[in-house]
Design brief:
The chain is of the alpha+beta class and about 750 residues long. Among the domains are: about 100-180 and about 220-260 and about 295-340, Alpha-Beta Complex (2-enoyl-CoA Hydratase, Chain A, domain 1); about 435-530, PDZ domain (Pdz3 Domain), CATH 2.30.42.10; about 545-740, 2-enoyl-CoA Hydratase, Chain A, domain 1. Helix content is about 30%, strand content about 20%. Helix 18 links the parallel strand 27 and strand 28. Keywords: Signal.
């Protein structure tokens, strides 16, 4: 088939919040809700597939926001159609009819009719109303010899008399007899997206968008061919043949299109049902000729009828066109831009509190981007589609810039992705721009201090490792952590808790955080810690790698740099065991590390599944699968026992490092379950200069097992203890040492 024939919650600090854990199942959709969902689907499909959106000349955000009030207020199908036509107007082009597609009726079936009828003036009427079988092919081939010998003009009637249509090869076979030089048929180009290219900054995912152009056919004349003028009769019941378009473009043919040319017969198109009985159809491709021009037009557009044969109005009109005698001129079509223009979203920074329509547009946009490009929609606690209408309704209650930003933050959190992050001045102020240099973690079910600032200010204020935090600024510590975890979200319960704990000490620069803490002796103390944007917990002071004893090596992957890999193996390569601390975030060493550990000779370390959204694809994006390779090393692989320490702080590249090490060697994981979050981050831009980041592609174990929302499970569970923290011990490392020495 040729290209052209393809068809294709609660209020908190004045902010509107809701609890993920308390989320109720969605209520049945009302007609108004269903219309909102239909409008969002329309905005999504036009945004990512309509050719006009690759020119950077159409502000589709503004088009939807400006028309949303009228679209929601329409009371009748006719009013809704008028509002939808206004919405689609900026896309331009006469090939964009709004009205629901009404296919022309089939012609009456006449199985006995000859495929060729001779008309006065040596004009041949070729009736290709239905799919030809083998015997009819033979009859048509025999008739072609007579057509070449005597025809002064040929009328090809392509209006079908049933669901089956003439194969394009039959038409090409006929046309090859009637040209005197090769003709390149037009093709279709259409938009495609390999992941979602970030709107702010860049991503290691190498996400990209562009056009794909289908191959076209080259129609060569047969040995006995003779050029003859043609007229093609068509209606909207079958795709318009590229042969007809190419010969019209060449000036050798005319097109009689009953009812006019329809987008449904010219280009691949999509239809979105906005509500029952009201649909919008639009093209998702552009016609391309060999000189780079695009376009299509009918030479005549008579009314639709079901008459066929020599006395039909359509055939009589074709005869008249052929009788004009002169060769028709080639249509003058515009040239397409050689390259698509990247869609860079507008941040609308002045919209701190957008109007309701723009707030709803922000929800539609976030929903549409994630619906198309978020790779982990499956397995969510609530289907992503069900999140749209509730958050659109929630925007009706917003009355401050903070409310607006928090609704978007809460919506993003429902993705259950620890990579989700919303950059907003209002959210930053709400959470606080500064914090003391203290790290908290859940230890034995309690919120404990596990790290202190490098400057020692926390220690001077009386805070110690192992202190249990009971409250922060008068708010119960557990309640504060849960509130923030619900707002910020995460891939797993531990991932959400980690986000809550990581933000619970934030506040105003220069303002003290007042903590009630319980010491190991049971005494409760009040500690005041000054917040500062520059304060950080102290990093490990040890070297990136060292011997723990004569036979056990240790490397801290939070510190180890790629250029130190070879030196580390020079120093530790003869040990019996190698302990890799991956509690935290690495420095890009996972790929080289796996190469030096690859006793299994593994060829890949992780499997990727990237969303690929194509205008020629289905409703759901396809997935492009690939395996990330482990590169060979000139060195012999390390043959000792490999142990990796993990916990909930192991996220993204840390988990990716674990995947590669797992594929390369029989590693033993000791510690806690990891965050369950992996895949290069991308982002979208919403009104008010709000940036929402999320995971852009799915990553799995090399053998296909899932990672997201599951995490890497330890072979030997181990966790810090309050006693160990207070004594300055690393309980997890001690457990790893026991395993290294005893195998137990």
């Amino acid at each position: 088939m040729t290209a052209i024939s393809l068809r294709v919650a609660a209020f908190a600090a004045g902010a509107l919040l809701c609890s993920l854990s308390a989320a109720a199942p969605p209520a049945a959709r009302t007609p108004a809700d269903q219309r909102l969902l239909g409008l969002a689907e329309l905005w999504r499909d036009v945004k990512f597939y309509h050719p006009a959106l690759a020119t950077a000349k159409v502000d589709w955000d503004a088009a939807m926001a400006n028309n949303l009030p009228a679209l929601q207020a329409a009371r009748t199908p006719q009013e809704l159609q008028t509002a939808l036509a206004q919405l689609m107007a900026p896309l331009g082009g006469p090939e964009l009819p709004f009205a629901p597609y009404q296919p022309a009726p089939y012609l009456p079936r006449d199985a006995a009719a000859s495929p060729v009828e001779w008309l006065p003036g040596e004009l041949a009427l070729v009736r290709l109303h239905h799919a030809t079988n083998r015997s009819e092919d033979t009859a048509l081939v025999a008739a072609q010899r007579e057509i070449v010998a005597r025809a002064r003009g040929v009328i090809v009637d392509l209006r079908p008399d049933g669901p089956a249509v003439v194969e394009e090869r039959v038409l090409q076979q006929l046309a090859a007899q009637l040209i005197d030089s090769p003709v390149q048929l037009p093709a279709v180009r259409y938009r495609t997206h390999s992941g979602y290219r970030p709107q702010r900054g860049d991503s290691s995912g190498n996400y990209r968008s562009g056009f794909e152009i289908m191959e076209s056919d080259l129609l060569s004349p047969s040995r006995t061919a003779r050029p003859v003028p043609l007229v093609f009769i068509v209606n909207n019941r079958r795709p318009l043949s590229p042969v007809a378009l190419a010969l019209q473009r060449r000036g050798q043919a005319r097109i009689v299109a009953q009812g006019g040319l329809s987008v449904a017969t010219l280009l691949p198109h999509r239809a979105v049902m906005v509500e029952e009985g009201v649909a919008v159809r639009f093209p998702v491709g552009e016609l391309v000729y060999e000189d780079g021009s695009t376009g299509m037009a009918a030479d005549a557009s008579p009314p639709v009828d079901q008459a066929a044969g020599a006395d039909s109005p359509a055939v009589k009109l074709a005869v008249k066109l052929l009788g004009e005698g002169k060769r028709p001129g080639a249509p003058d079509y515009p040239r397409l831009a050689a390259m698509p223009m990247r869609m860079v979203e507008k941040p609308y920074p002045d919209m701190q509190l957008p109007t309701l329509a723009w707030r709803q547009l922000a929800v539609i946009k976030l929903w549409a981007v994630a619906d198309t490009f978020f790779p982990y929609k499956e397995g969510m606690a609530q289907p992503w589609q069900d999140s749209l209408v509730p958050f659109l309704r929630r925007m009706e209650q917003v009355n401050s810039p903070l409310d607006y930003a928090l609704v978007l933050q809460q919506m993003a959190a429902t993705l259950q992705d620890s990579h989700v992050g919303l950059r907003s001045a209002e959210i930053d102020k709400y959470l606080g721009l500064a914090a003391p240099g203290v790290r908290l973690a859940r230890v034995e079910g309690k919120i404990a201090v596990v790290g202190l600032d490098a400057a020692g200010a926390a220690g001077q204020a009386g805070l110690q490792r192992g202190d249990v935090v009971l409250s922060v600024d008068g708010e119960d510590a557990d309640a504060r952590a849960r509130r923030l975890a619900d707002l910020l979200g995460g891939s797993t319960p531990a991932g959400r808790d980690l986000k809550g704990l990581g933000n619970m000490l934030r506040g105003e620069e220069g303002k003290a955080a007042v903590l009630q803490v319980e010491r190991g002796d049971g005494q409760v103390r009040t500690v005041s810690l000054m917040r500062s944007a520059s304060a950080r917990p102290a990093p490990p002071s040890a070297a990136p790698y060292r011997l723990l004893d004569a036979r056990i090596g240790y490397a801290d992957l939070n510190l180890l740099q790629p250029q130190q890999i070879d030196a580390m193996f020079d120093a530790l390569g003869q040990t019996d065991s190698l302990i890799l601390n991956m509690r935290g975030y690495p420095k890009g060493t996972g790929w080289m590390l796996a190469s030096r550990l690859n006793v299994r000779g593994a060829r890949s370390g992780a499997a990727f599944m990237r969303p690929v959204a194509s205008a020629m694809g289905g409703r759901e994006p396809a997935r492009q699968a690939s395996l990330q390779p482990i590169m060979p090393s000139k060195h012999a692989p390390y043959s000792g026992k490999v142990i990796m320490l993990l916990d909930e702080t192991s996220i993204s590249q840390a988990e990716h490092t674990a995947l590669f090490v797992e594929a390369a060697t029989p590693v033993t994981f000791i510690g806690g379950v990891t965050s369950g979050t992996n895949g290069d981050v991308t982002n979208t831009l919403l009104p008010g200069n709000i940036v929402v980041g999320f995971t852009g592609q799915e990553v799995r174990h090399a053998d296909g097992r899932p990672l997201q929302r599951v995490g890497i499970q330890p072979h030997i569970p181990s966790a810090p203890t309050l006693a160990g923290l207070r004594a300055g011990r690393d309980d997890v490392l001690e457990r790893a040492l026991t395993f290294a020495r005893s195998g137990k």
